[in-house]
Specification:
Elements lengths: L3 E7 L4 H4 L28 E5 L3 H10 L4 E2 L16 H7 L1 H9 L11 H15 L4 E7 L1 H11 L17 E4 L3 E4 L11
Protein name: Phosphoglycerate mutase
Pfam families: His_Phos_1 (PF00300)
Length: 191
């Protein structure tokens, strides 16, 4: 039986990310059309290309191939009325709601989706993929990738992690430890 291989790729940078804003359906910051299909040979063999429905994921998917399949389970977390807001502004205008959201994954003071709901959505998608053999390349969002990692690492985490030779793991501490998954930056793309 062929295994299921899932490669999760975060969309390329947007102006909202650069400005530390909660996302809207914004385009990529880079000239993605000039780089279209520039990463289509990154994976060996035939991979199924899927992405979230947002503009930024569809544009990023165009770097990897033509006609990606839109998968609603890969859409970004719904941040409700916080969409487009700067995190720094919320720290001033609505600090209690922001603190509550950061401290309680089941809360959604913004009127959108809670992190628990996001995790359930992504978990259901991962379960459905278990019977889908082959390689799937999914272009999605940081919150969706975090939710997928959380689902996979829920139990007995150390036995679920493969560490390849010369691989590196980066952890950063700024108030709390964060795992940083690095990838190719725009400067790494062919011109």
């Amino acid at each position: 039986m062929q295994a299921t291989r899932l490669t999760l790729i975060c969309h390329a940078r947007t102006v909202a990310q650069k400005l530390a804003r909660f996302p809207l359906d914004e385009p990529l910051e880079m000239d993605w059309q000039a780089l279209r299909l520039s990463r289509c040979n990154q994976f060996k063999g035939v991979a199924r290309l899927v992405c979230g429905p947002e503009l930024r994921t569809r544009q990023t998917a165009e770097l990897f191939g033509n006609a990606p399949q839109i998968v609603d389970a890969l859409q970004d977390c719904d941040f409700g009325r916080w969409g487009g807001e700067r995190i720094g502004d919320l720290q001033k205008s609505d600090p209690e709601a922001l603190r509550h959201w950061l401290g309680d994954p089941a809360s959604a003071p913004h009127g959108g989706e809670s992190l628990v709901q996001l995790g359930e959505r992504v978990g259901a998608w991962l379960t459905a993929l278990q019977s889908t053999p082959g390689h799937i390349v999914a272009i999605t969002h940081p919150f969706v990738i975090r939710a997928a990692l959380t689902q996979v690492l829920q139990g007995g985490a150390s036995s679920l992690i493969d560490v390849e030779p010369l691989s590196a793991l980066e952890l950063r501490f700024h108030g709390r430890w964060r795992l940083r998954l690095s990838g190719g930056d725009v400067e790494d793309l062919p011109r």
